Amino acid sequence: MKKHGKTVNFVSNNSLRTRANYEAQFKASGIDNGFANLTIPSLAIAEYLKSVNFDKTVYCVTCEETIHVLEAHGFKCKQGPDVGPEFYGEFLKFLEDDEEIGAVVFDSDFKVNLPKLYKAITYLKRPDVLFLNGATDRVVPLKPGCLALGKTFFNWIVHELNIN
Fold it and tell me: pTM above the 0.90 mark?
């Protein structure tokens, strides 16, 4: 394609991979500057936030690599917790709003849990808070013949509890 003067772009829904990993894969395939022409969810989210002059904190229900990408683009991120409390009454603290949060981002978090969902739902009750999603897989192949839940179901929970 390049020999014919065409620009070649690449798209992946995998935000888990690092830039170094992608660059190694492009190099192994004989592709020069592949990462510069790659769109992945975390980069698309960062570019969107830049385009709307976003200046608040992002609450991330994401993998670490998405957080690294957002921070590399100058955004302040909050995340967690990765583990919830044993006693149900302690979950009340996850229903407290944080006015710093201006966006909730979901993207490939294999440690999603009730505290994270409660925080996301709470922040999104404010109409000015953005809800951005990266990969929307219904299922994720963990090994041959074994599919695990993707994050789409968690997006649905958050969406359903914020439409009223």
Answer: no
